[in-house]
Amino acid sequence: AKSMKQTQPVPLVKDVMADFIVTIKKDQTVQDAAKKIWENSFNHLAVVSDTGELVGILTAWDISKAVAENIFDSVESVMTKKVLTCAPNEPVDLAARRLDRYGVSAMPVIDTQRKVLGIITSDNISKLLARRY
Amino acid sequence: AKSMKQTQPVPLVKDVMADFIVTIKKDQTVQDAAKKIWENSFNHLAVVSDTGELVGILTAWDISKAVAENIFDSVESVMTKKVLTCAPNEPVDLAARRLDRYGVSAMPVIDTQRKVLGIITSDNISKLLARRY
Lengths: 133, 133
Ligand SMILES: C[S@@+](CC[C@H](N)C(=O)[O-])C[C@H]1O[C@@H](n2cnc3c(N)ncnc32)[C@H](O)[C@@H]1O
Hints:
2 copies of one chain form a homodimer. Chain A is α+β, with helices and mostly antiparallel strands. Chain A has a single domain (13-130), classed as CBS-domain (Roll). Chain A contains 6 helices and 5 strands; from the N terminus they run H-E-H-E-E-H-H-H-E-E-H. The first copy, chain A, is globular and about 45 Å long. S-adenosylmethionine binds at residues 57, 59, 61-62, 80, 83-84, 103-107 of chain A.
């Protein structure tokens, strides 16, 4: 499914993204979040509402911020609420440019109902480049 | 300095890497590390000896591990000691492949004396791809 041998010149986000993302609720604790990040070997958690819509993002960097400031409160207190996202049918170079411009290393991929479909990271994009030369 | 317009077909690590990396000593605390990660908006710290050689790497993910396990000891207790590194003159696609194969998002770039010259991240490599299509 993730093959680079396509007829299109530019792969789409959905061809490159991880179609799995670990989620958490905003009233869980910072330690719950740290455990999920650690156990899943993943840097990013999608914070979702009870009905599954994206409401925030929480990364290992936010956990460092909590440790630095000694604030071990709810996920809501440390998550980023204005989330940069992308759509599954966007060309991947546009996504790469947005990651670069805003200085983040990943964007959740969402549908028109803000349901989370996956995540695209600079790791995914970097892997793509490994095969291009 | 980081221009993509080169005569070489494949850029080298030194053309793409960040030539700045935040360092820490192994006897500092996990909270010191968290503060450095937070203040510098960076996910990776190079752990260096008193004479400046690389002895480990500590990432925001390692801070999450410390929070998950409730271990707030020295940097040495949470850092990774066997560090994947690369050389400044390696072609960037080889570096990208190594990141992918070992599932890490960055490698310190070191000289033959293990002095740290910078760091190459999948963010740097992803940025490169943003300009290739
Ligand atoms: C500014 S970055 C700095 C560290 C590193 N460059 C990285 O991307 O993780 C860290 C912050 O960006 C936030 N962040 C990560 N991905 C995001 C996204 N897609 N939209 C908005 N904020 C995001 C995190 O919640 C965290 O507070």
